[in-house]
Specification:
Elements: E1 5-10, H1 11-15, E2 22-25, H2 32-42, E3 51-57, H3 60-64, E4 68-69, E5 72-73, H4 77-86, H5 91-101, H6 108-118, E6 119-122, H7 126-137, H8 152-159, E7 163-166, E8 169-172
Antiparallel strand pairs: 1-2, 1-3, 4-5, 6-8, 7-8
Length: 174
């Protein structure tokens, strides 16, 4: 799983001209409650701190799902990180899918379901993907004479109209 880091300050300190805070890595905490406890401890000099996430490093997917912003971090972020960690796909594949189609879904289970439905694998390039696809489907005869040549670039261009790719991960367009 990729790291999620947040720089936690407060609006009060910021408005007073201070950017005092600390970088926290969410992987160091087992739950939102544990993270929240650390944030309150960090700013214990304020009676009721209003946290400000002055900077954060996280996957675009988390931003698009609305899990984190300057003034908000979802209490579901740890649950979603765990779901992703326990699914059968690397986070890189899930993120590549979202880069291909956009992330309009807020339900991580539906995103993973779409990945399962669409994912075709990782390949070096379109020609490699299409040649493997057609060979696996049986569309290329095993006894194709060596004097017949396939224009793989043109074939890949035609086939890729039905597929999308991001970071060498290929997905069927559904």
């Amino acid at each position: 799983m990729t790291n999620v880091n947040i720089y936690v300050g407060t609006y009060k300190k910021y408005n007073e001209g201070s950017i005092y805070g600390k970088w926290l890595n969410l992987e160091d905490y087992s739950s939102y409650e544990e993270l929240k406890k650390e944030m309150y401890n960090l700013h214990k000099d304020e009676q009721d701190p209003e946290f400000m996430f002055q900077d954060y490093e996280c996957p675009d997917l988390f931003k698009e799902m609305g899990l984190i912003s300057e003034s908000y971090i979802s209490d579901e972020i740890f649950e979603i990180m765990e779901i992703i960690e326990n699914c059968s796909y690397d986070f890189e594949v899930i993120e590549a899918y979202c880069n291909c189609v956009g992330c309009y879904e807020k339900d991580i289970y539906k995103i993973i379901e779409k990945v399962e439905e669409c994912y075709c694998g990782e390949y070096d390039n379109d020609v490699h993907f299409v040649s493997n696809l057609l060979e696996d489907c049986g569309d290329i005869p095993k006894n194709l004479p060596n004097y017949i040549h396939v224009d793989w670039e043109r074939t890949a261009w035609n086939i890729m109209l039905d597929y999308s790719t991001s970071d060498n991960h290929y997905f069927r367009n559904i």
